[in-house]
Amino acid sequence: MAATETYPDDLRYHKEHDWARIEGEEAVLGITWFAQDALGELVHYEPPKEGDTIARDSAYGEVESVKAVSEVIAPLSGEVVAVNKKVVDEPETVNADPYGDGWLVRIRLTEPSEADALLDVDAYKQVVAES
Amino acid sequence: MAQTLQRTPIHDRHVALGARLVPFAGWEMPVQYEGVIPEVRAVRSDCGVFDVSHMGELEVEGPRAVELLQATLSNDLGRLTAGDAQYTLLTNERGGIVDDLIAYKLDDFRYLLIVNASNREPDFAWLKERELPGSDVRDVSDEYALLAVQGPRAIERLGLPPAKPFTFAEGEIDGVHCMVNRTGYTGEDGCELLAAAEDGAELWDRVVARGAVPCGLGARDTLRLEVCFPLHGNDITPETDAISAGLGWCCALDKEFTGANELREVKARGPERKLAPFVMEDKAIPRQGMQVEGGGEVTSGTHSPMLDRGIGLGYLPAPAAVPGTEISIDVRGRTKRARVVKRPIYKREESS
């Protein structure tokens, strides 16, 4: 059920083990393979509300495994336009497919230039190697 | 963090299996192998094995061993014959719980106490201080490996004869000699196997070869909470008393032991707070230290794989600590509803 370790090269990454897929004025956010593996099987996702404003480097939600709770850090600032209800109902979706069905929120970017400061896949893999 | 973590005799096996190892009570222990949820399911449906060699073993020997233990432990050892085991509490002068443990009567003059890993030293010091001429207390923890084999098929898989809970006997698993204790911390049938430390890894291999699924401390904590077994350090501590914790059943208040008077008083006037199990109504996972509205505190909390809900234990004002009461828990600033339930939180549906 758990995905194998991968870090897609079309994503941008944040050192707190979050990813962003930038699609024009919006971005889809989630946590990386490394993050879900460190937590173990997720059993709860506490999402933000649609319409909430989230700020880069700040927590916008929580994910919990049986043993641990972790804040999810926003790699980019924006307004929440969609929450992944599938993950609310079946948090283990994140373990199975962290970059696909296991996305957490979709936001409308308020500071698109922030993307320049995110890590590319090679830089993020370096973060993982040092973790 | 200069302190080196201790390793059990099974450590190499955990590494080879790819377990996630974490520090626990001064030991490097497997918290999970495959994952907490599949490990819990394995124990509920078939058989799992846990390395619990970090637990402490104290031997109390001598003609006055029973006298020392009767004066320090809450339960009545006089009810035991050789081959019996008993859940009991080491209590302090205030009636608080120094530790919870299982006492095994080896013979009239020799008892084995299996104690929590984190309390091995305090328990030993406590008993050593109170030693009588004719009662010798020894910490023999380093001599043993301890494996808990738990689940509805545990006994069958190990090829052991049926036996009553809370009894023990000498035995062997495929040639490895051990003491077979009909005890556990999961609410399932099964046993705990006490072997010489040097035989521990071989015993582990034999048990795994018989189909027991390796399980870590994460599953162990979840399993015990699903059946409302208290965890010392969380649900019971030197500051909490047995009556409030719902452990009056293992306090023989008709005998004298440390703190017995205080416990009689609590029982007579009724505890102000009681340890109560609860199940979340809202989607949320309660955690130790969370506050309950109207007074009260969560002492243990987790996600129950069997119920697929958040569950927990906590001290509540006595009027609220009755099954059916709705409570509100502050989950990191959000109010989440839960309901007090009967013990145990999880019970297998009877098939017969």
Plain-language structure description:
The complex is a heterodimer of chains A (131) and B (352). Chain A is an alpha+beta fold. Chain A has a domain at 46-130: RNA polymerase II/Efflux pump adaptor protein, barrel-sandwich hybrid domain (OB fold (Dihydrolipoamide Acetyltransferase, E2P), Beta Barrel). Chain A contains 4 helices and 9 strands. Chain A has helices at residues 33-39, 85-89, 93-96, 121-130; strands at residues 12-14, 18-23, 26-31, 42-46, 53-54, 59-65, 69-73, 78-83, 105-109. In chain A, strands 1-2-3-9-8-5 form a 6-stranded antiparallel β-sheet. Chain A has a 3-stranded antiparallel β-sheet with strand order 4-6-7. The mean pLDDT of chain A is 96. With 352 residues, chain B is α+β, with helices and mostly antiparallel strands. Among the domains of chain B are: 11-53 and 143-226, Gyrase A, domain 2; 272-346, Elongation Factor Tu (Ef-tu), domain 3. Chain B contains 8 helices and 18 strands. A 6-stranded mixed β-sheet of chain B has the order 10-11-12-9-3-13. In chain B, strand 17 (326-331) and strand 18 (334-340) form a beta hairpin. In chain B, helix 2 (36-45) packs across helix 7. Chain B starts with 10 loop residues before the first helix and ends in a 12-residue tail after the last strand.
